[in-house]
From TrEMBL:
Keywords: Metal-binding, Zinc, Zinc-finger
The organism of origin for this protein: Neobodo designis (Flagellated protozoan)
Designated name of the protein: RanBP2-type domain-containing protein
SUPFAM superfamilies named in the record: ENTH/VHS domain, Ran binding protein zinc finger-like
GO molecular function, one term: zinc ion binding
């Protein structure tokens, strides 16, 4: 393996180039051939170089003769110089000093070949690799550099001395050296930025197609541009350059400068995320309604790992995972699957028969009836219920045993029951039982001295959400009863709000939450 790549093609330029050369011809010229004998001699030299331990006159003379016998071409000289410099960079202590002595002998014996090649790179190697901080090697290195005046150009020797002083000063003042290094890096970063963004031509970039399709396997280490908030906005069948209209959402081909269905132009993807339009800010900001819907449905934000871990840790403090799995299995077998089968059967029974000219209701291809209004919460109905909802509503109190609640302190029981009501909704079979147990746990929670302010604030927010669910179910029941649809004589939420009204003043609620809960209690009491 040749070490010419380490030194670069500039080192193969002869000390006295021909006046006929315009410069750069060495990059296009075919490389010089190295005969097998020269390669074998170079391998022998490298093996002998690795065994060098003491800088004796006999050993250095032997190595210098072996290096000179490898070949007379500049390529062979560059190979020798490359391996010597590599040994200097990868070794330390007395071993590195031996390699410095070998470099000195080669440069002095053959200044027109080895001296020229070493002069191209000795400054960089000496500035970084010379162990000036070693007190045992310092006088020997200083004596070595003093005799380089006639070997290397004067400016190179002076810059080596200057680099030694800079390294010694940096060792004594590490904080100031780090500060100067940071300032220099910032300065050069600004200069590079001015060159790359001259006249604003480099402010925009073509985005990564795989990222826009939502399937980039590289993630953060991808070298292509990932515009924030636009991941997965393009379908998988799009090609490079295709774009989505930010106005109407149409997919346009790469050659269109304007959307084919609206007057919007093709968007530009700016690399500087600090300067963004209002649409880009909205695209990169989570929707508050979507986060509220996620927390309402699951109890936490499913996209936030920390929030999910906190939720399930709090959930499994007093309820083992096996009990949760068993409850979900019973819910699927007893409620969810029968409800789906019942909905399919009702949709099939409402389908028009032969000769029936009644208008057919909107039924999906799977036979599922139309969904409830989008504004209606799960388990609640906004406004007066329809005939179908009123018919499917329970006509009397749910007769079931009380649900299982962990035997924990009263504040933790309050939080557990509120979470169950929020998750399962008002149509759950244990809704009335949860409200009954909540009425029993509230007085104990209010009297609990260990109820910390932070935990009380968290429990109070869950209690307010639970009260909203109960009030929504009570409002639907009252609307159905006033509309003549019948129903139970008393809703389970009525005694709950009656008991909750007594402890509103003692609960650690905020001003607006306290007024909201008090308004719900007064509404139920007046009805």
């Amino acid at each position: 393996n040749s070490f010419c790549t380490l030194l670069g093609p500039s080192s193969r330029r002869s000390p006295n180039p021909s006046p006929m050369q315009g410069g750069g011809e060495e990059y296009f010229a075919p490389p010089e051939e190295i005969d097998p004998d020269a390669s074998a001699r170079f391998a022998t030299f490298c093996a002998r170089l690795r065994r060098l331990e003491k800088a004796g006159r006999k050993a250095l003379t032997e190595l210098a003769e072996m290096a000179d016998d490898i070949g007379a071409s500049m390529t062979c000289k560059e190979m020798v110089a490359g391996v010597v410099l590599r040994c200097i960079m990868t070794s330390g202590g007395n071993r590195q000093l031996c390699y410095w002595y070998l470099l000195d002998k080669l440069a002095k014996d053959k200044p027109e070949t080895f001296g020229y090649v070493f002069s191209l790179h000795v400054l960089d190697i000496a500035s970084d690799a010379m162990p000036w901080d070693d007190p045992a090697l310092f006088p020997k290195l200083e004596s070595l550099v003093e005799h380089w005046d006639g070997v290397f150009p004067r400016d190179i020797v002076d810059r080596i001395y200057l680099s030694r002083k800079e390294r010694q000063w940096a060792a004594k003042h590490p904080l100031e050296a780090a500060k100067m290094r940071d300032e220099e890096e910032k300065k050069w970063a600004e200069v590079e930025k001015q060159y790359t963004e001259e006249e604003g031509l480099d402010l925009y970039e073509q985005p990564c197609l795989a990222y826009m399709q939502g399937r980039c396997p590289w993630g953060e280490v991808c070298t292509q541009f990932h515009p924030e908030g636009l991941e997965g906005t393009l379908p998988p069948e799009t090609r490079l350059g295709d774009w989505r209209c930010p106005g109407c959402g149409s997919i346009n081909r790469h050659f269109r400068r304007r959307c084919f269905s609206c007057p919007r132009e093709k968007p530009q993807y700016r690399k500087d995320a600090s300067v963004r339009t209002q649409e880009e800010v909205l695209l990169s900001t989570p929707d508050a309604d979507a986060l509220a819907a996620l927390r309402q449905r699951w109890g936490y934000n499913t996209a936030d790992e920390d929030e999910a871990l906190q939720y399930w840790q709090r959930r499994f403090e007093h309820e083992p995972p096996t009990a949760f799995v068993e409850a979900r299995r019973n819910a699927y077998l007893g409620q969810i699957l029968p409800a789906v089968r019942k909905a399919v059967a009702e949709a099939a029974s409402r389908a028009p028969q032969a000769g029936d000219r009644r208008p057919r209701e909107a039924v999906s291809s799977a036979g599922v009836p139309p969904r409830a209004p989008a504004k209606a919460h799960r388990g609640e109905t906004a406004g007066a219920p329809t005939a179908a909802v009123a018919a499917s509503a329970p006509t009397g109190p749910v007769k079931a045993k009380l649900p299982d609640v962990p035997n924990a302190p009263a504040p933790e029981r309050v939080l557990f029951i509120c979470q169950k009501v929020i998750e399962r909704g008002a149509h759950d079979a244990h809704f009335a039982g949860y409200l009954y147990l909540l009425c029993k746990a509230l007085p104990e929670a209010v009297k609990d001295v260990k109820w910390s302010s932070s935990r009380a604030a968290e429990d109070s927010l869950a209690l307010v959400e639970c009260a909203k669910r109960a009030f929504g179910a009570w409002s639907a029941w009252k609307a159905a009863r006033d509309g003549g649809a019948g129903g139970a004589a008393m809703h389970p939420a009525t005694p709950f709000f009656s008991d909750l009204r007594r402890y509103v003043a003692a609960l650690p609620l905020a001003g607006n939450h306290r007024e909201e809960v008090m308004t719900m209690c007064d509404t139920v009491a007046k009805a």
